[in-house]
Specification:
Helix 1 links the parallel strand 1 and strand 2. The protein is elongated and about 80 Å long. It has about 475 residues and is of the alpha/beta class. Strands 11-12-17-16-15-18 form a six-stranded antiparallel beta barrel. The structure holds manganese (II) ion. Manganese (II) ion binds next to loops.
């Protein structure tokens, strides 16, 4: 989908046609200039002067699949009762860009004509009131529009809004149920469809096996060439690689036939399959599909959404699991991995394809998988949990490092990180909030973007960052609980 955003500028008839023409010309200029630097086009739509014009543009936005959100601004004063009918019906993300055309107050030029045209300082206050009064989810970004920080924040918000659009169309294909007895990977599928738009349904593993048996040698040859071009082959077991190609081709056919952008499976239900998909799932994730192990369809959908929110619509975001700690004082790290399925979009170098025995679940043969180290850099880990009656999104700031040990006998991809505010306080906060062992780890989606996304989705958001304390978080969770029960 080619997403775009609409620039709607508020005004009124009071100022006469000349001022309105200037407003329209400047708005078109700003949209065109901003579109050169923003991740998605900003299309100037209208200088709205009446209730009908606003209501009409909102109706159009609601029905246009390409429109991922509205950016509003008031160059002149726009009485906000005109906006009520439109905003009350708005179903798309909404950002209030509180900006000003000019950067400087001109000493000689300033007179009452100038004041009539350049009134964003009070026009945007009137506009902000009505959104506050309507309790609308919104993003407010203030600053001069050519400013790099303002542009970066608007671009980041656009990506979060695209995450909303992707969420509302999300279809998850489940192969098998959740791992037996696991609690945190469960969830109310009706609630997630109502709130987030996700269609989560199941397909028989037997149907996947049928699809696998129908894959031709020529199809497998072609995909193995793609593997060879992208990865180093560090095994003689070509049969294992070819088997993963067979699994990937079959899963991709089924996903694409149903329009699914995410899938889950479980090592407890591989009936008729020789291997748990490892390389197959990893290479599907590299192409933007979400994945969750052990039937974790929530983390699968979130992986696809964070990928879509990232750079060029498929960023460095991966299904991850907290595995083990390094608790040496002064060198406290988390080691994240999974039994096979870590997305190579987070790799520091070229991943290697290796084959190893997998001692868990039903695996007749050694599955091929990509092995690599995660790259260094600031990142987040994200977990969506079902609190019963509401969804909670937990997001923690982390800093990924080059793994401090080579770990030559670890047969899976690994990422090592320091959590904010520290490993132990971070763990205490994460556990207090109920965060899962499965997460999405992302290098190019920020906590602010996840907050914006949760806000637009109308779900609870909990952020664990450098200033978080256990005491403060406990208080926040207690108050959140009350607030969400009243909501
Ligand atoms: Mn797991």
């Amino acid at each position: 989908m080619n997403y775009e955003f609409w620039f709607v500028v508020g005004s009124q008839f009071l100022y006469g046609p000349e001022v309105l023409e200037t407003v329209a010309a400047r708005a078109a200029e700003m949209a065109a200039e901003l579109s050169k630097v923003l991740p998605y086009p900003l299309i100037y739509k209208v200088t709205a002067k009446t209730n009908k014009e606003i209501t009409d543009v909102v109706k159009e936005a609601n029905y246009d699949d390409h429109c991922a959100g509205i950016v509003a601004w008031c160059h002149t004063f726009s009485p906000s009762k005109m906006w009520i009918n439109g905003l009350a019906n708005l179903q798309k993300p909404y950002c209030h860009l509180a900006t000003q055309y000019n950067v400087e107050i001109p000493n000689e030029e300033i007179d009452m004509d100038f004041m009539n045209l350049n009134q964003a300082a009070h026009g945007d206050r009137e506009h902000g009131f009505i959104a506050a009064r309507l309790r609308m989810p919104r993003k407010v970004i203030a600053g001069h529009w050519p400013d790099k920080t303002v542009q970066k924040r608007l671009g980041d918000w656009m990506k979060a809004a695209v995450g909303v659009a992707v969420s509302k169309e999300m279809k998850v294909m489940r192969f098998g149920d959740n791992m037996r007895e696991v609690a945190v990977t469960e969830g109310d599928k009706v609630e997630v469809q109502t709130k987030l738009g996700w269609q989560v349904n199941t397909w028989a593993v037997g149907d996947l096996v049928k699809e696998m048996n129908a894959v031709t040698d020529a199809e497998i040859d072609a995909l193995v060439e793609v593997y060879k071009a992208s990865y180093d082959i560090a095994t003689d077991n070509m049969d294992a690689i070819r088997y993963q190609a067979r699994e990937e081709i079959a899963m991709k056919k089924m996903l694409d036939a149903e329009g699914c952008k995410a899938f889950s499976n479980t090592f407890q239900d591989l009936y008729g399959m020789e291997q748990l998909p490892g390389l197959a799932s990893q290479h599907l994730m590299a192409q933007g599909y979400g994945y969750g192990g052990e039937g974790d369809w929530k983390v699968s959908a979130m992986t696809a959404i964070l990928k879509a929110m990232g750079e060029n619509g498929n960023g460095a975001s991966a299904f991850m699991e907290d595995y083990t700690y390094n608790l040496v004082p002064g060198a406290e790290y988390s080691l994240g991995a999974h039994m096979l399925e870590v997305c190579p979009s987070v790799a520091a170098g070229k991943p290697r394809i290796e084959t190893h025995h997998l001692g868990i679940g039903m695996n007749e043969k050694d599955p091929a998988r990509l092995v690599f180290e995660g790259k260094e850099g600031d990142a987040i880990v994200v977990s969506l949990i079902d609190m019963g009656g509401r969804l909670r999104l937990i997001c923690q700031d982390i800093h990924c490092v080059k793994p401090i040990l080579p770990m030559p006998n670890l047969p899976v991809a690994r990422v090592m990180w320091q959590a904010e505010p520290s490993l132990t306080t971070g763990v205490e906060c994460w556990i207090t909030a109920g965060g899962a062992h499965h997460t999405v780890l992302s290098y190019d989606v920020s906590a602010e973007q996840m907050k914006d996304w949760a806000n637009m989705m109308d779900i609870e958001f909990v952020h664990i960052g450098k200033d978080t304390t256990v005491e403060g978080l406990e208080k926040e969770l207690f108050l959140n609980d009350l607030a969400w029960k009243l909501k």
